[in-house]
Please model this.
Amino acid sequence: ANLMMLGFAYQRGLVPVTHQAIEKAIEMNNVSVDKNKLSFLIGRIAAETPDFIAEKLNQLSKGLELDFQRKSETLEEMVLRRMSDLKNYQNEALSETYASLVDRVRTAEETLGKKDLEMTQAVAKYYYKLLAYKDEYEVARLYTNGNFKKYLEQTFEGNYKLEFNLAPPLIADKDSETGHLKKKTFGPWMLSAFSVLAKLKFLRGTAFDIFGYSAERQAERGLIKHYEQLIDRLLPLLNDENYILMLQLVSLPEEIRGYGHVKEEHLKRVKMREEKLMAHIFDPAADKELSQSAEGHLRHAS
Model:
């Protein structure tokens, strides 16, 4: 806040030193240099264009309000919102598939006498995450559903040029050293291509889905099927003793992040974690050994 005020005062001519000197002092102080430089710059911008800053703060406020609303929403509200998202993402059938699995988990939890329905909430969150993987059709839809255009209109004025840095699996070259796909720059004509591609989302997962043959897309669809099979296997065995372990299992997609090679590394760790949890569920002796080990560590710590 102090650096923002300093930037504001500087821009109004109330500080008898150059902005270079102030920035040099920030660097010499060597504390949150980038953050403090940004605060100073925001203060300068606020002095010249207060309406711009006010609009940005308003957008931030709305974003925080939406985040709070989502965190405080009920299970039913979350499921309905995600059903709507999946309908836009693909179709009504996918939305109903999602709701059906979530309902099965809820029934199993309620039968067990669970009130908080933690497993149902976890499945509602992470099954959705797996179903709505961001492929080429979804990227195209997000760029052309009106929100991106609205963002551009609110953020920029005058003439500007759009460029998209993308690495389409079908045409992107691989880095000879890392093996990772290299991004290419595409011009504003990509918006027209996105508009066409977004309308072809009905091809997703079919034999006519040209993007679906890539290893990454096949892996994403495999994760969905694996998760569904995992739920099928776990629900008949759900009891008070293994509840926490099963809750951890159905929450594993939380650890799947990123794209490409980054995602692959996360998947390897998730697979190892899943194998350990499954071993403890289906091998009571291993689970007992784990519990005894944990108790031993606690006694040692005390």
